[in-house]
Amino acid sequence: MLTPDQARDRAADIVARAVRAGADAADAVFAADASLDLSVRLGALEDVGRSESEELGLRVFVGQRSASVSTSDLSTDATNALVDRAVAMAREAPEDRWAGLAPQDRLMHGAPPLLDLADGDEPTPAELREWALAAEDAARAVPGVTNSEGGGASASRSIWALATSHGFAGAYAATAYSLSASVLAGDAATGMERDYAHHAARKRAHLDSPDAIGRRAGERAVARRNPGRVASGPMPVVFDPRVGSSLLSHLTGAISGQAIARKTSFLLDALGTQVFAGGVSICDDPHRPHGLRSRPFDGEGLPVSPVAIVENGMLETWLLDSGSARQLGLEPTGHAARGVGGGPGVSPSNLYMAAGIVPVATLIADIADGVYVTELIGQGINGVTGDYSRGAAGFRIVGGQIAGPVAEFTVAGNLKDMFLALTPANDLEFRHGINVPTVRVDGMTVASG
């Protein structure tokens, strides 16, 4: 695989060629990835695969017209043809008054922050196999587990580079390691219940042990055996951290520049107002060392920095790339994100809700009748109105205690009301790209399936 410097030079070279071919401005992304994935089931190797890819994406501007093209054929003839095709396409494209590169005076210059995203430790297929087997063995050893969907392990290394025609060129490398197990509990007579555990990390040393992953998967599956039904009606809903993070995804979709510019957001007029309960803070930290979504610059070459998106319940910022910022008469916020094809969108980096002040036991202690949700199903979200309805599974809360498992019910409400009625516990852990503590939302509607 190329080094980050070589990847940066590849991107810069095709930008220079685009300008020579007649583009007024251009930017290019080069992405390379090499990964090894392995899965086992019932103690035997089931699948092993290795993939390697290199892709190049080019965006060119002719006046206020633009076009984007991409290729995995990096030969000289292919990239020359790519440049010519992109410029020709841009000349025929419709004008977009908001299109263009990021403001030149905002580009990142100097040494990027040291984020420690790449590990030099590359496991062998034999090592990955041992990890996966150990995770599955630990899951199957939990009393009550009756079958397995398998264990999996993977390791990858990627490089991402961006260059623009107005003065930016940068690249960085990252590694990722993951481990998972998925098992079933129960039998044909009483019903089978499935659950899983998964962990991913930039550094091999930071990955949870196979035994821990396996035990967690097995215990979760066993706890879900013989689910009952929950009564319908309004009640408090408590979201486990592994599903509560989806609430922040709905927030970021609603405050993205594109949604605001198109007036398709339930938070359209909410900037500077209270959208969460007092005391709730939500932050984005692109500089977290070895974070799963850390990055030294955004998808347009702008510097990034930690920012409070919600502070003490107040919405402090939109998430803006340059195009949506121009449309709204604002400045880009360093949240541009892009793949190889097309122009930039927006995305947070390491997004998290700050921990609250109460333990989980205290959070649920006064709930006479409620539900603790560990799984969400479906995508019943209306981004324009904020209406929310999703299938769910989890556990009853009775008399302030977690009780038996329940399944086949829906939780519904409106995200604006849910955000204002949300209370976080104090159990925040940084394990994923988006992290939240256990959260309680009062006043939701629960309906049994």
UniProtKB/TrEMBL annotation:
<dbReference type="InterPro" id="IPR036059">
    <property type="entry name" value="TldD/PmbA_sf"/>
</dbReference>
<dbReference type="Pfam" id="PF19289">
    <property type="entry name" value="PmbA_TldD_3rd"/>
</dbReference>
<dbReference type="Pfam" id="PF19290">
    <property type="entry name" value="PmbA_TldD_2nd"/>
</dbReference>
<dbReference type="GO" id="GO:0008237">
    <property type="term" value="F:metallopeptidase activity"/>
</dbReference>
<feature type="domain" description="Metalloprotease TldD/E C-terminal">
    <location>
        <begin position="232"/>
        <end position="447"/>
    </location>
</feature>
<dbReference type="GO" id="GO:0006508">
    <property type="term" value="P:proteolysis"/>
</dbReference>
<dbReference type="Pfam" id="PF01523">
    <property type="entry name" value="PmbA_TldD_1st"/>
</dbReference>
<dbReference type="InterPro" id="IPR047657">
    <property type="entry name" value="PmbA"/>
</dbReference>
<feature type="domain" description="Metalloprotease TldD/E N-terminal">
    <location>
        <begin position="26"/>
        <end position="90"/>
    </location>
</feature>
<comment type="similarity">
    <text>Belongs to the peptidase U62 family.</text>
</comment>
<dbReference type="InterPro" id="IPR045569">
    <property type="entry name" value="Metalloprtase-TldD/E_C"/>
</dbReference>
<dbReference type="InterPro" id="IPR002510">
    <property type="entry name" value="Metalloprtase-TldD/E_N"/>
</dbReference>
<feature type="domain" description="Metalloprotease TldD/E central">
    <location>
        <begin position="120"/>
        <end position="224"/>
    </location>
</feature>
<protein>
    <submittedName>
        <fullName>Modulator protein</fullName>
    </submittedName>
</protein>
<dbReference type="GO" id="GO:0005829">
    <property type="term" value="C:cytosol"/>
</dbReference>
<dbReference type="InterPro" id="IPR035068">
    <property type="entry name" value="TldD/PmbA_N"/>
</dbReference>
<dbReference type="InterPro" id="IPR045570">
    <property type="entry name" value="Metalloprtase-TldD/E_cen_dom"/>
</dbReference>
